[in-house]
Design a protein that fits this description.
heterodimer, A: Aspartate Aminotransferase, domain 1, 2 domains, 7-stranded mixed sheet, 3-stranded antiparallel sheet, 12 strands, 12% strand, B: alpha+beta, 3 strands, elongated
Chain lengths: 421, 142
């Protein structure tokens, strides 16, 4: 059976040269960067080099603006809470986009319980931030604006230059979560005027266990993890040296290969979507069409009349690794908040699958996925009462309405006795 | 990859991959379709009932792997039961027969119980006489 990994948004394999670079830092160069002897000083050097590699990937001026954390979630926590606490006296208002990653959303919810307020700026049906709403949301009490570069679910690229301009005009620091874009899109922190930027090397062939937070020297943050004075006092705890070394090299390689990687995945993305659109009736792409508004790695699909987890399981049983934003996949039984924010019909959110490409994928992989996915859809539709009811005209399609029958949501509400969320 | 890891236990996976009694019944005596407001899943069970017993059962499910496996198992379990026995059917039987479900997926088995009972209610509505001889009171109470 062919194995096709289409979940590069969750993880990527560590490059062999990255792994080789990491190895001695487990065994030979095992020192702690806080130590003052040779063993400590050696790894301190390695840390500095990794900071320079990270800074270069995002166009930062200095390695002193790079902080290492344990992953992207911790970086987001530090950015949001660290800036909120540091600027408490100026104001207690935050502005975020409605489609931020849970690490941002839930950090903000935590602060809201402590008296901060937050305005969540809406997005259009393609997931693009409503800039007029952003502008209106900023008040004299706003201490931070948080907008991600690329959405983790639907791949929408946000107009960061405009967002940066609005924040600069109002003199409010901007934090940009680049978790879904670093290594796959050019990033220039100075062009955006970003106060903070975060990303993780495990999205671009580096190891897990290290996150990066860029912080412009003018931006104020306080530590949210307390202990020693590692990372300039901004993040206590022993640095994960092997992962930082590997992450730094992965960042350097990502910078070198950036255009090559995009040139590899963009045609595959197009081939995959065009293949699926032709092979599967009643399928829809969520987010912008492949092109300048969408990252070249991501496809977010809704297939009507079937549910996402079943699709995911059957893909997996056929060697294809994918993700889903369906409520059945989430532990909270809620659809992805991103799909909710773009106003996706519940019926389509239920049938959601996310495919993210990487440099290891080939045209033959894509063709196998198209062929296999069409079979999976046919099989699940054969089991679905909704497909049967659509064919009999009891319910209608959302994607291509026939004018016959009631909506899926109405039908679901009728048979469950109450409206589905 | 030499080993295969699965999200659910092997019984659940087996019922998901090879569901029993999937489909509709021509001339069904009772059909129940229910939805779970919590997650949006929808399940439909059709019954053929003869001499007060469930002679045949079929399901169709819009839902996750455990919802499909739950409906497959439920239709297996209830075949041959009397209407009264089927009215006393509990989702726990499905959970036990499947060798357990993750806590967040227990509601899938509840949906199977509800679909079965909706189908029985539909049968009783269509055949009021069939329910009358029951010594255990109204079967609709389930």
């Amino acid at each position: 059976m062919r194995h096709v990994f289409l979940d590069h948004q969750s993880a990527t394999p560590v490059l062999p040269e990255v792994f080789d670079a990491m190895r001695p830092y487990f065994t030979e160069y095992f020192g702690n960067a806080s130590s003052l002897h040779q063993h400590g000083l050696r790894v301190r050097d390695a840390l500095k080099r990794a900071r320079q590699q990270m800074a270069a990937l995002i166009g930062a001026d200095s390695d002193e603006e790079i902080f290492f954390t344990s992953d992207g979630t911790e970086s987001a926590n530090l950015a949001i809470k660290g800036a909120a606490y540091a600027n408490e006296r100026k104001g207690k208002h935050l502005v975020i986009s409605a489609t931020e990653h849970p690490s941002v959303m839930n950090s903000v919810e935590f602060l809201e319980k402590q008296g901060w307020t937050c305005t969540r700026v809406g997005v259009d049906p393609q997931g693009r931030l409503r800039l007029d709403e952003l502008e209106a949301a900023i008040t004299p009490q706003t201490v931070l604006v948080s907008v991600h570069h690329v959405n983790h679910d639907i791949g929408t690229i946000q107009p960061m230059r405009e967002v940066g301009r609005i924040c600069a005009a109002r003199n409010v620091p901007l934090y940009v979560d680049c978790e879904a874009s670093a290594g796959w899109l050019p990033i220039d922190v100075k062009e955006w005027g970003a106060a903070m930027v975060s990303f993780s090397p495990h999205r671009f062939y580096g190891p897990k266990g290290v996150g990066v937070l860029y912080r412009n020297r003018k931006a104020r943050i306080v530590s949210v993890i307390h202990g020693g004075v590692q990372e300039g006092g901004r993040r206590a705890g022993t640095e994960n040296i092997p992962a930082i070394v590997g992450g730094g090299l992965a960042a350097e390689i990502a910078r070198e290969r950036l255009s090559g990687r995009i040139a590899h995945v963009a045609p595959l993305q197009k081939r995959l979507w065009e293949g699926l659109r032709a092979a599967v009736p009643y399928i829809q792409l969520n987010g912008p069409e492949p092109g300048p508004d969408r990252i070249a790695t991501n496809l977010n699909l809704s297939t009507e009349f079937i549910e996402g987890e079943g699709q995911l399981l059957l893909c997996d049983m056929n060697g294809i690794a994918v993700a889903s934003g369906s409520s059945c996949v989430s532990k909270s039984l809620k659809i992805s908040h991103v799909l909710g924010a773009i106003g996706l019909d519940h019926a389509l959110a239920q049938g959601n699958i996310i495919m993210t490409l990487g440099e290891g994928n080939t045209e033959a992989d894509v063709d196998y996925v198209v062929e296999t996915f069409a079979k999976i859809v046919a099989r699940l539709r054969g089991m679905s009462p909704m497909w049967d009811e659509f064919e009999r005209g009891v319910i209608d399609s959302v994607i291509a309405p026939t004018g016959r029958g009631k909506s899926f949501s109405q039908h679901a509400a009728d048979v469950s006795g109450k409206p589905v969320h | 990859m030499s080993e295969t890891y699965t999200l659910y236990n092997s019984t659940v996976m087996e019922h998901f991959m090879n569901p029993r009694n999937m489909g509709d019944l021509k001339d069904a005596d009772g059909v129940g379709e229910v939805g779970a407001a919590a997650c949006g899943d929808i399940m439909k069970i059709s019954l053929k009932i003869k001499d007060g017993r469930i002679e045949d059962a079929r399901f169709k499910t819009f839902g996750c792997g455990s919802a499909i496996a739950s409906s497959s198992m439920a239709t297996e379990l209830i075949k041959g039961r009397t209407i009264d026995e089927a009215m006393a059917f509990s989702n726990q039987e499905v959970v036990d027969a499947l060798g357990g479900l993750p806590p967040v997926k227990i509601h899938c088995s509840v949906l199977a119980e509800e679909a079965l009972k909706a189908a029985l209610e539909d049968y009783v509505k269509r055949h009021p006489a069939a329910a009358a001889p029951s010594p255990v009171g109204s079967p609709i109470a389930g």
